Amino acid sequence: MALSSEALHKVYYTMTTIRQFEERMIKEFMAGNIPGFVHTYDGQEAVGVGICTHLTDEDIIGSTHRGHGHCIAKGCDIEAMILEIMGKQGGLCNGKGGSMHIADFDRGMLGANAIVGGGPPLCNGAALSAKTLGTKNIAVSFSGDGSSNQGTVMEALNLAGVLDLPHIFIFENNHLAEGTGDEYAVSGDIANRVASFDIPAVKVDGLDFFAVYDAMEKAVEHTRSGKGPYAIEADVIRFDGHFIGDPQAYRGEGELDDLRANKDCLKIFRKRVTSEGLMTDDELDMLDAQAGDAIEQGVQRGLAAPQPAVEELYTDVHVSY
Amino acid sequence: MSESAVNEHPVKTLREALNEALHQEMERDSRVIIMGEEVAGGAGCKGSDEAYGGVFGVTKGLGTKFGRTRVIDTPITESAIIGAAAGAANTGLRPVAELMFIDFIGVCFDQIFNQAAKFRYMFGGKARTPIVIRGTAGAGMRAGAQHSSMLHPVLTHIPGLKVVMPSNAYDAKGLMISAIRDDDPVVFIEHKLLYETKCPVPDEMYTIPFGEAAFAREGSDATIVAFGAMVPKAIAVADKLAKEGIHCDVIDPRTTSPLDSESILESVEVSGRLICVDEANPRCSLAADVSAIVAEHAFSSLRAPVKCVTAPHTPVPFAPVLEDAYIPSEAAIEQAVRETLGGR
Ligand SMILES: Cc1ncc(C[n+]2csc(CCOP(=O)(O)OP(=O)(O)O)c2C)c(N)n1
Fold first, then answer.
1. What is the pLDDT of residues A199-228, one digit of tens each?
2. B321 in contact with A, Cβ within 8 Å
3. Is the CB of A65 under 6 A from ligand 1?
């Protein structure tokens, strides 16, 4: 289905928000304003947005350690995300989770996950709820190429197939798992593996928003109408390190320059919509600026926000001793 | 080895000490192999295959030296890693398997506790499973709830497993060599905050036997039993109190299974006061276990209630202010010691 002009604006706004959000997180991390381990999603925006544009707040996604982009695409409030990532009061998990554990159930965001392969079994559960309760909602799990090798993921595929669960498995193949390439670590091929479970599986160019969007449209049609699980393997790239601060010695000579010049999904989107007369450069620039302003505001609030109260250590858990 | 003899040795970090132990054992015994995610450095990328050496650099250089048939990079697949290591151990190899963060043990727990740990006993003594399972543990790096656990109590609970937790570089090397030579499955827990700590470490190989505690400080006023990264904190407290004339034994059990309860009991029989310091959650922790052992076997020696200084019974929080409050502090240890001394 062709996207309306309004929808296209929203798509680009979300993509540029993710890109600038991650660039800013890198800056704030380097400045010492963000603790811990942070994995950025820049480079993969077309996937998260192409997928989540088809989802409602009641549909559930399960994310990974590289979850910021999924959160933003699913509609999480960026200021509350920044507070969480900085470990501040008022963060989406009140500072108790951090970058790798952002969750926002009101937006159908079941949680980032710091255990590789942790998400797909949980998304089967969300799909089971939807199916049992007859809500017509669907669940979508995100996994990487590295994650596709976990037993938990393969078990989840099989169970989804056996129970005909409304679960769409997204595999973002950025060809890297830390410093291990999929060429080395994935025996066979992700989409083929999924197909062997009798689950429809397609491959798309994950740098092309429209390709992802179209593939997801078919997937959602299939799954929402009760035909069971579906899978999309998106061929994509990662712009930055595995985590912020990663020296990336595993990158080839000129690899990063080439990615930025030729495999930037935002540039690809811009070229397509301007050449087809769907949007103008001025409109896109304006959305860039608006997104930048919102992030700036969120960061300022985040920096100024207080830490959680120490008593929070003992809340949200049964403590007995 | 006497203290002065130890001090003539080159100073190394705990990371370097472990790396050296692995090098030397691989050189000595061709059956020793290493497997895990990026333990050889990574593979299948366009750039260097030595970007990593385990994410904390403990296995750096081993792949280059011994080749990738002995230092094996695996996919992210913990159950398959530990299962392969255990099966290989049953059939002639002596694998050292890395789990990166010990929290990931959740993914492969069956291969450890139902499989490797039970083989020797369950098969009537026929099986040997000489694997070392390495993992980094502990809070303090703002790594969040799924990358910061201390799981030694869970592992210590399992018959058949040995559990090792060094507190300094010297012990780390000797314990690692013992672990590799041991015929039982050993879980070797490395606290992330200790990798950069240093002390003199001999270049030559040496072993430290399991089940033999170290007395990091000696004194007859109170007994502090501390584990892993809590040991340096207990030492700092003991040194501070010593200046006031309060002298404590600081006992570092070094292995929680087997546990050197004899040394602990002997110390408490003299001091009459026990303070257990453990970064794990309190219920069924080593702190609780040591307290129970003392209550059972040295009750009449106690002159004050036992004190346990542990993390609270919560997962590890992310926010720095909360994580700092989570980790047992020197102040809390000091207060506990003073309380056992009636407020001195
Ligand atoms: C069970 C488990 N094993 C290992 C890790 C360490 N780890 C975190 S992310 C990662 C790589 C994941 O690769 P992939 O699934 O391709 O996702 P990407 O990082 O490319 O987004 C690894 C090995 C982990 N967090 N959990």
1. 999 999 999 999 999 999 999 999 999 999
2. yes
3. yes
Structure tokens at B158: 């399992």
Q: Residue A77 corresponds to which amino acid? A: D
What is the percent of chain A with per-residue pLDDT over 90, rounded to a whole number? 98
Task: Verify whether the Cβ–Cβ distance A180 to B142 is below 8 Å.
Answer: no
The residues of B annotated with a catalytic role in the active site are 147
Interface of A with B in 235-254 (CB under 8 A): 247-253
Asked if pLDDT for residue B3 goes beyond 60, the answer is no
Pick the atom of ligand 1 nearest to A66's CA: 21
Interval B206-256: pLDDT, tens: 999 999 999 999 999 999 999 999 999 999 999 999 999 999 999 999 999
| Rounded distance from Cα B278 to ligand 1 centre (Å) | 29
Q: How far is the CA of A114 from the centre of ligand 1 (A)?
A: 8
What was the pLDDT predicted at A321? 60
Interface test with B, best of A178, A259, A318 (most B CBs within 10 A): A178
Give the domain ranges of chain B: 3-200, 214-340
Average pLDDT of the segment spanning B55-84: 97
Ligand 1: nearest atom to the Cα of A144 = 15
What pTM was estimated for this model as a whole? Answer: 0.97
Q: Which CATH number fits domain A5-302: 3.40.640.10, 3.40.50.10540, 3.40.50.970, 3.30.43.10?
A: 3.40.50.970
- Partners of A312 on chain B (C-beta within 8 Å) are 317, 319, 322
Q: What mean pLDDT do residues A249-254 have?
A: 96
CB within 8 Å of chain B, chain A residues 18-37: 35-37
ipTM of the modeled complex = 0.96
CATH 3.40.50.970 describes domain B3-200: yes
Say yes or no: domain B214-340 is CATH 3.20.20.370: no
Asked if B284 reaches chain A (Cβ–Cβ under 8 Å), the answer is no
A146 CB near ligand 1 (under 6 Å): yes
Domain ranges of chain A: 5-302
Percent residues over pLDDT 70 in chain B: 98
